[in-house]
């Protein structure tokens, strides 16, 4: 569909699709906060389940489209590259929250548990690609295990939210997750939910256009699938998470900001499940490149550092941001250098 377009027009279409996804995500953030208040779901859970899943839709469309076209590296790198980029966004958001380290202020058991689940989910593909090359009906057994583990994690996350067995120590910098409007819980959630669904459709359509444009970049400019997936489409389709994180921090919805990133990353692991199903030439885990595995390790390492920061809850670090934010930026910069120079 985009193959007949000139390069300037192709870039223009790519930019318009990215803008549509970003603008839709800005409004979706505000609606997610309202839905969290009216359903009493809580910002951390709303960020992880509602906002995280919605803003990840464009990315999953890219991975599925790439897998259907037979490009396993493009599909895989888009998923794991997006997880690394979105974790980086929390470090950048920490720069904006000047009162204290963001991970300190947004203490929430649900976010800790989701970070643990993300590490587990990212470990499963490592097991798959280092194990035997097997597939049943074109799907690797680890993809089934990953999907089941995700569902179990969502259930357990809600349990942690509703019946926490421990609570973080409250300090003067800890931001409480309370409704902005006392009347919010008594109002109907239908209107915001319908608006939110419409915005999700826009983000999905934008993701499809972005996936097609990314394929053209690979074909026309002889770029590697790993480079396009991890650094172009992954970052562009992750922009909603960046925007929603910044908007949430500015609104003071800190649990929503962190929950949206961690929950979105958790949802993004399902890109691999969808990609494995869509990829018809066997197991997607055994059709990827070395750089794709490196980005998987980068996402795993950055998540572990983030989890350590959420537990440590450092008030201030270098430049008034947490040491975990500094480390995450350094890890991502290293991965970027390896991808570009490799």
UniProtKB/TrEMBL annotation:
<feature type="transmembrane region" description="Helical">
    <location>
        <begin position="196"/>
        <end position="215"/>
    </location>
</feature>
<dbReference type="GO" id="GO:0016020">
    <property type="term" value="C:membrane"/>
</dbReference>
<dbReference type="Pfam" id="PF01699">
    <property type="entry name" value="Na_Ca_ex"/>
</dbReference>
<feature type="transmembrane region" description="Helical">
    <location>
        <begin position="227"/>
        <end position="249"/>
    </location>
</feature>
<feature type="domain" description="Sodium/calcium exchanger membrane region">
    <location>
        <begin position="10"/>
        <end position="128"/>
    </location>
</feature>
<dbReference type="InterPro" id="IPR044880">
    <property type="entry name" value="NCX_ion-bd_dom_sf"/>
</dbReference>
<feature type="transmembrane region" description="Helical">
    <location>
        <begin position="294"/>
        <end position="312"/>
    </location>
</feature>
<dbReference type="GO" id="GO:0055085">
    <property type="term" value="P:transmembrane transport"/>
</dbReference>
<feature type="transmembrane region" description="Helical">
    <location>
        <begin position="112"/>
        <end position="131"/>
    </location>
</feature>
<feature type="transmembrane region" description="Helical">
    <location>
        <begin position="74"/>
        <end position="92"/>
    </location>
</feature>
<dbReference type="InterPro" id="IPR004837">
    <property type="entry name" value="NaCa_Exmemb"/>
</dbReference>
<feature type="transmembrane region" description="Helical">
    <location>
        <begin position="137"/>
        <end position="157"/>
    </location>
</feature>
<protein>
    <submittedName>
        <fullName>Cation:H+ antiporter</fullName>
    </submittedName>
</protein>
<feature type="transmembrane region" description="Helical">
    <location>
        <begin position="256"/>
        <end position="274"/>
    </location>
</feature>
<keyword id="KW-1133">Transmembrane helix</keyword>
<feature type="transmembrane region" description="Helical">
    <location>
        <begin position="46"/>
        <end position="68"/>
    </location>
</feature>
<keyword id="KW-0472">Membrane</keyword>
<feature type="transmembrane region" description="Helical">
    <location>
        <begin position="6"/>
        <end position="26"/>
    </location>
</feature>
<keyword id="KW-0812">Transmembrane</keyword>
<feature type="domain" description="Sodium/calcium exchanger membrane region">
    <location>
        <begin position="196"/>
        <end position="337"/>
    </location>
</feature>
């Amino acid at each position: 569909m985009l193959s007949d377009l000139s390069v300037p027009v192709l870039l223009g279409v790519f930019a318009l699709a990215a803008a549509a996804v970003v603008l839709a995500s800005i409004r979706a953030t505000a609606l997610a906060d309202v839905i969290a208040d009216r359903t009493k779901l809580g910002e951390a859970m709303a960020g992880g389940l509602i906002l995280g899943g919605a803003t990840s839709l464009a990315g999953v469309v890219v991975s599925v489209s790439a897998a259907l076209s037979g490009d396993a590296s493009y599909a895989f790198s888009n998923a794991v590259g997006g997880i690394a980029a979105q974790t980086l966004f929390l470090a950048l958001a920490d720069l904006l929250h000047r009162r204290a380290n963001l991970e300190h202020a947004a203490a929430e058991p649900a976010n800790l548990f989701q970070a643990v689940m993300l590490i587990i989910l990212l470990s499963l593909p490592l097991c798959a690609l280092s194990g035997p090359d097997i597939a049943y009906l074109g799907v690797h057994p680890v993809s089934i295990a990953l999907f089941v583990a995700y569902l179990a994690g969502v259930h357990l996350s809600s349990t942690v939210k509703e019946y926490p067995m421990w609570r973080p120590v409250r300090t003067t910098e800890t931001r409480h997750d309370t409704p902005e409007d006392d009347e919010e819980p008594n109002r109907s959630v239908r209107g915001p939910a319908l608006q939110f669904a419409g915005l999700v459709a826009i983000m999905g359509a934008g993701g499809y256009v972005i996936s097609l444009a990314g394929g053209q970049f690979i074909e026309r400019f002889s770029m590697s699938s790993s480079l396009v997936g991890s650094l172009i489409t992954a970052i562009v389709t992750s922009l909603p998470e960046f925007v929603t994180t910044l908007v949430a921090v500015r609104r003071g919805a800190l649990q929503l900001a962190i929950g949206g990133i961690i929950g979105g990353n958790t949802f993004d692991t399902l890109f691999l499940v969808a990609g494995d199903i869509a990829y018809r030439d066997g197991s997607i885990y055994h059709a990827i490149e070395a750089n794709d595995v490196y980005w998987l390790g980068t996402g795993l390492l950055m998540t572990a550092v983030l989890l350590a920061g959420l537990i440590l809850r450092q008030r201030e670090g270098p430049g008034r941001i947490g040491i975990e934010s500094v480390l995450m930026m350094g890890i991502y910069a290293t991965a970027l250098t390896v991808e570009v120079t490799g």
